[in-house]
């Protein structure tokens, strides 16, 4: 298990100078939060997350900025992604939870249902800013119509296009499923598939498939429907026609990126977290991004993290003030830019930092229709049923109709009451 602990207690002057340099001139809100928490100063807040790399650095920068103005000491522990959920369960049993948590948004409802996160309805009502968020990210923080946190950041998946290959073949980025079929076919040559995506038996595979399911107008309660079967059939047909490798059943999103970088896939479906890698490792690659092809409607799947205050925290007021400060656009913007993340706030998404970049602007447009995997506390089991349907249909172990019916039988009793 990887655990990194960071305690912020720096010299105030050097800290402020460091934050100013890191945020590259972007203002940080300087209003002093209230400090009457009922505890002996300084207040210490503990925080758990699984961030690493630029994401971790951006958190450190933001946490340091808050310490400089708030008289609050922040203790942050970073775990390996696969370990955080287990640590939360263990901590709840032992009564040893932090004050605040950053969590993958599809897991938020499950931990809320266990009573681990605090209901912050009253504070959000007084705050009055939830209308400034995209509905997808905000919905992922709710359990039984009550809010148990706020979105931290968002992402979604779009279509990536090798523009050199498209120019050579006269193909334009597909906007519909019919165009996707024809484009993938036209772009397929010896040693190169038209399209790559992730169909692996993990949440990454579900993450990709849900965008296709929702594009048909179907949902998990109608998985075994004309729309659900059409989504499965599209993947089956792309493999049968040779436009997509059956290897997608074992590919992570990182593997998909490698196929695209190596010229073995002319188009791929992937997220904005790949931008730094492809920019650094493949500077000569000619590429563009476009929104996902639509069928009955436009759709994408929401990714990203949320933050929550634990129900056991004895410092709820201090934790809430930090959460509210983090979500002020003045403080949120430099953090998101440094981390390379997309905003969950619709008002901030209109900022030129994102709309002025032709690549990021496509992700913002796609984010407007991205949906959360907000299906209650049984979602991990639901996801497993979807993965089985994908794997069995695309591999040819079962026909599409059987795969859809089997998945529906498993999913329906796991869905939350209407």
Summed up, what is this model?
The protein is built from 18 helices and 14 strands.
Overview of the molecule:
- With 418 residues, this protein is of the alpha/beta class.
- It has 2 domains: 3-155 and 303-371, D-Maltodextrin-Binding Protein, domain 2, CATH 3.40.190.10; 158-301 and 378-414, D-Maltodextrin-Binding Protein, domain 2 (3-Layer(aba) Sandwich), CATH 3.40.190.
- It is 45% helix and 14% strand.
- It is built from 18 helices and 14 strands.
- The strands form 4 sheets. Strands 1-3-2-4-13-7 form a 6-stranded mixed beta sheet.
- The longest helix is centred in the N-terminal third of the chain and has 18 residues, at 53-70.
- The chain is globular and about 70 Å long.
- The chain starts with a strand and ends in a 7-residue tail after the last helix.
- Mean pLDDT is 91; it is low at 7-28.
């Amino acid at each position: 298990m990887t655990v990194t602990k960071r305690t912020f207690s720096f010299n105030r002057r050097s800290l402020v100078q460091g934050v100013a340099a890191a945020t590259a001139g972007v203002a940080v809100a300087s209003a002093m939060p209230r400090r009457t928490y009922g505890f002996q100063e300084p207040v210490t807040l503990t925080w758990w997350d699984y961030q690493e790399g630029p994401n971790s650095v951006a958190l450190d920068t933001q946490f340091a900025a808050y310490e400089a103005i708030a008289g609050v000491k922040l203790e942050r522990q970073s775990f390996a992604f696969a370990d955080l959920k287990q640590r939360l369960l263990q901590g709840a049993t032992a009564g040893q939870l932090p004050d605040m948590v950053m969590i993958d948004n599809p897991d938020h409802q499950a931990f809320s249902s266990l009573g681990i996160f605090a209901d912050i309805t009253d504070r959000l009502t007084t705050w009055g800013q939830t209308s400034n968020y995209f509905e997808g990210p905000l919905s992922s923080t709710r359990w039984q119509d009550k809010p148990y946190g706020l979105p931290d950041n968002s992402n979604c998946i779009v279509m990536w296009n090798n523009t050199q290959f498209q120019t050579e073949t006269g193909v334009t980025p597909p906007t519909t499923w019919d165009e996707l079929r024809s484009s993938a076919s036209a772009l397929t040559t010896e040693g190169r598939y038209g399209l790559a995506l992730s169909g692996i038996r993990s949440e990454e595979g579900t993450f990709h498939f849900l965008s296709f399911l929702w594009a048909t107008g179907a949902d998990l309660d109608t998985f075994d429907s004309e729309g659900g079967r059409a989504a499965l059939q599209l993947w089956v047909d792309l493999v049968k026609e040779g436009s997509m490798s059956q290897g997608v059943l074992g590919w992570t999103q990182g593997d998909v990126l490698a196929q695209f970088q190596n010229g073995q896939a002319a188009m791929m479906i992937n997220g904005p977290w790949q931008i730094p890698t492809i920019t650094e490792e493949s500077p000569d690659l000619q590429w563009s991004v476009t929104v996902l092809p639509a069928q009955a409607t436009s759709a994408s799947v929401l990714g990203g993290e949320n933050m929550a205050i634990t129900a056991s925290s004895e410092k709820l007021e201090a934790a809430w003030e930090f959460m509210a400060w983090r979500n002020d656009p003045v403080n949120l913007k430099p953090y998101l830019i440094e981390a390379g993340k997309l905003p969950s706030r619709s008002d901030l998404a209109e900022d030129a930092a994102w709309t002025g970049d032709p690549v990021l602007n496509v992700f913002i447009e796609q984010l407007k229709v991205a949906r959360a995997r907000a299906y209650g506390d049984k979602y991990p089991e639901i996801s497993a049923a979807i993965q089985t349907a994908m794997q069995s249909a695309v591999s040819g172990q079962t026909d599409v109709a059987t795969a859809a019916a089997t998945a529906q039988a498993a999913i329906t009793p796991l869905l939350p009451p209407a």
